[in-house]
Structures are given as structure tokens and as C-alpha cells.
Write a structure and sequence with these properties.
mainly alpha; two-stranded antiparallel ribbon; 7 helices; globular
Length: about 200
């Protein structure tokens, strides 16, 4: 099974036919897809200027999509390295029980579904790397009352999500499932109350 870097080489290789290059970019999303596979593909294709169903996109547009994905992946891998180092130090110091951020992180190891978007057509418009930087910054500070990605305050609790956790607060502005550790207990409670007011 090819890894992310070998798939990325195929996307960039002009000797590969266009179908393989497009396929390789899609396969990259099996290794790293912050919004989930379908939502990340929709995001990348719209930002790079080709249709999600376009079978013969301009190769330069495929590479532009890959560039954005690789930048975001490097942001996430740096966070995971720092996270692993912090946990090693905590264990060394006798702190064996992980906190709520650690519980959330366990579900996103590798970067798939970090900022899960249950509706693949509703996702942040900013570059993936910027979205991840905002999310990481929120994980490293005290919990707040708004979406860490878009600062939206319309958070609605949804059930039966197609990802773990299977329920949680969803930002109605940018579409991400907001990680519970970045929200105050009051904001989480408010998102549950909001669910009753909005048809989902």
C-alpha cells in the first residue's frame, strides 16, 4: 500500500497519465483528510478550480490541490510530534491519565477527521493549513464559546454523525464538528439547547 509521499510523487509526475494523477490525489485523502474524505475533496477541488467530479482536470490544478493538502499535513504532523513529546514528559512525571484533549486527539490520530464536516458540501473556505492552525491554537488555550475556526457562535448539537464521536456541536457557519475540549461547559450546553430550535 502506497504512503502519502509516494502518492504525492505520482500526482506531480508528468509521465503519469491524468487519471492516475487524479486517483493518486484521491488516495492521499485516505492518509490525511482533515474534514473527512468527501468534504476535503470538495474543499480542495473548489479551491484549486476544478469540479469534484471532473475526470480530466488541469494537472496544474491537481498539483495546487496537493500543495494545499501537503502544507496542512505538515502543520498537523508538527502538532502530533509536539503532542507525543508532551505526553512522554507527562508520563515520565507520573501523569498517566489523559485529559479531554487527549481523548479527542486519540480519535483523530493521523489527521483524518480533525475538523470533521458531516455534510461534505459545507466546510471552511480558508486554506486547510490556516484552519488547522486555528484549531490547534484553540486546543492549546482555555476553552471558549465560539467555533475556533470561523468564530461563529451558532453551534448546534447533532446526533448520528458519520464519524467518532457520533454526536457533538456542529458550527452552522463553517460546518465543522467542534472538538468538545475547545468549548466551555456553558457553550456545550447552549449547543444542546440550540438543537431543539433548528431542524436538522
Amino acid at each position: 500500500m502506497a504512503g502519502f509521499r509516494s502518492l504525492a510523487r505520482q500526482v506531480r509526475d508528468p509521465r503519469c497519465d491524468l487519471a492516475l494523477r487524479r486517483y493518486s490525489l484521491r488516495k492521499c485523502l485516505e492518509r490525511f483528510a482533515p474534514y473527512g474524505h468527501r468534504a476535503t475533496w470538495d474543499h480542495l477541488s473548489s479551491r484549486a478550480g476544478f469540479g469534484p467530479e471532473d475526470r480530466s482536470p488541469d494537472p496544474a490544478r491537481l498539483v495546487a490541490a496537493l500543495d494545499e493538502l501537503e502544507e496542512a499535513r505538515s502543520v498537523w504532523l508538527a502538532y502530533e510530534d509536539a503532542f507525543a513529546e508532551r505526553r512522554r514528559k507527562e508520563k515520565h512525571d507520573g501523569l498517566r491519565r489523559p485529559g479531554s484533549v487527549d481523548d479527542w486527539h486519540r480519535l483523530t490520530w493521523g489527521g483524518c477527521g480533525v475538523a470533521w464536516c458531516d455534510d461534505p458540501r459545507v466546510h471552511p473556505h480558508e486554506p486547510l493549513a490556516e484552519v488547522l492552525r486555528r484549531l490547534i491554537a484553540a486546543l492549546e488555550r482555555e476553552p471558549g464559546a465560539v467555533c475556533p475556526v470561523c468564530s461563529g457562535d451558532r453551534l448546534i448539537w447533532k446526533y448520528d454523525l458519520a464519524h467518532e464521536p457520533s454526536s457533538g456541536p456542529v458550527c452552522t457557519d463553517c460546518g465543522i464538528v467542534v472538538p468538545r475540549p475547545v468549548l466551555t461547559p456553558e457553550a456545550l450546553a447552549e449547543s444542546r439547547r440550540g438543537r431543539l430550535l433548528v431542524s436538522v
